[in-house]
């Protein structure tokens, strides 16, 4: 019985470790990824890299906004995210969050643009992200990984 519990614990820990992003140095990021990011965001500063499986997540600042971009290891953009205020959220999305998560003290809001230009919105509440379409209609809730 003890062996089975240890085995299950090991599997659970391994799965959790694989799902977490890890910080990486700029030198560990493939040159194609860095080149694509630099070309798209030449004025970025306070740049920090993470790796999640085979994708690279870059957190950076520009003007007064914190943003994120996700790239494949070949340098293709998966999505970009800009932190926004509640005023930039579509009203139905804000109302949904206010109603469903009123007791959660800290919420972060994002404008998400995928590689095709499709815009959605996200709200980070606890360890989840609630996704809305561009009109603010609820789409889904997922585990937050950024």
Structural overview:
- There is one protein chain.
- The protein is an alpha+beta fold and 146 residues long.
- It has two domains: 21-79, Nuclear Transport Factor 2, Chain: A; 85-146.
- It has helices at 2-19, 31-40, 91-100; strands spanning 22-24, 45-52, 55-62, 65-72, 77-84, 107-114, 119-125, 128-132, 138-143.
- A nine-stranded antiparallel beta sheet has the order 1-2-3-4-5-6-7-8-9.
- Strand 3 (55-62) and strand 4 form a beta hairpin.
- The radius of gyration is 18 Å and the shape is elongated.
- The relative contact order is 0.12.
- Mean pLDDT is 85; it is low at 1-18.
Which features would summarize this protein structure in a list?
42% strand, 2 domains, alpha+beta, 146 residues, elongated, 9-stranded antiparallel sheet, Nuclear Transport Factor 2, Chain: A
Write the layout of secondary structure elements.
Blueprint: H1 2-19, E1 22-24, H2 31-40, E2 45-52, E3 55-62, E4 65-72, E5 77-84, H3 91-100, E6 107-114, E7 119-125, E8 128-132, E9 138-143
Antiparallel strand pairs: 1-2, 2-3, 3-4, 4-5, 5-6, 6-7, 7-8, 8-9
Structure summary, number of beta strands: 9
Mean pLDDT across the residues is 85
> Mind telling me the C-alpha Rg?
18 Å
**Regions with pLDDT < 50 over 5+ consecutive residues?**
1-18
Note the total helix count.
3
Query: Hey, roughly how much beta strand do the residues contain?
Result: 35-45%
User: Order of strands across the biggest sheet?
Assistant: 1-2-3-4-5-6-7-8-9
C-alpha geometry: elongated
Biggest sheet details? 9 strands, antiparallel
Overall structural class, as computed from helix and strand content, comes to alpha+beta
Q: Helix proportion of residues, in percent?
A: 25-40%
The N- to C-terminal Cα distance equals: 37 Å
Q: Into how many domains do the coordinates divide?
A: 2
Order of helices and strands: HEHEEEEHEEEE
